[in-house]
Amino acid sequence: MVVVAAMATRKWHQHKYIKYGYLLLAIPVFFLVRYYYFNDPEVAKGEGIFPRCFFHLATGLHCPGCGSQRATHDLLHLRIWDALKHNVMIVIVALVLIAKAYAVLSKKYFPKYYYNLGHTTWFTVALVIIVFLYWILRNVPIFPFTELAP
């Protein structure tokens, strides 16, 4: 009875089995990152596990994710400029993920100074608006916006 009461007072992220879940998630992520590092999607042209964009095949327009596989490969090789040319949004997402990892670590080690920007309503609304604007602007056939297309 005491054990059940102790488990009930723990938060879900404090449970010891959650660490195993993170490990189980880290294993396929490691192999996927390794695959992207050693195989260039630019050369593969939709072969292997590099799928082609269904939205682009169906409409001829670029979605916000078009070019993200090539940009991920370029980021892993630290070719930032090439990654920006393929997909600006994936570079921004990578920066947000790094900031989120920093926030999680700072909450664990420095809880007094913790502030998580991603849990505010205005941040989520702004992110959705930015993604939709990016989606629209990268399909406008006028000079400055054509640079957003992969």
Walk me through this protein's architecture.
Helix 2 (16-38) packs across helix 5 and helix 5 (68-76) packs antiparallel against helix 6. The chain is built from nine helices and no strands. The longest helix is centred in the first third of the chain and has 23 residues, at 16-38. The chain has one domain (39-146). The model has no long low-confidence stretch (mean pLDDT 78). With 150 residues, it is an all-alpha fold. The chain has helices spanning 2-9, 16-38, 41-44, 54-59, 68-76, 80-86, 88-109, 121-137, 143-146. 67% of the residues lie in helices and 0% in strands.
| Count of extended strands | 0
Mean pLDDT: 78
Oligomer: single chain
Instruction: Show unreliable segments.
Output: none
Radius of gyration: 20 Å
- How many structural units, i.e. domains? 1
The largest pleated sheet is described as: none
Through-space gap between termini: 60 Å
| Helical residues, percent | 55-70%
**Tally of helical runs:** 9
Structural class, by secondary structure, is mainly alpha
- Encode the helix/strand succession as letters: HHHHHHHHH
Strand content: under 5%
Give the overall shape. Answer: globular
Protein name: DUF2752 domain-containing protein
Keywords: Membrane, Transmembrane, Transmembrane helix
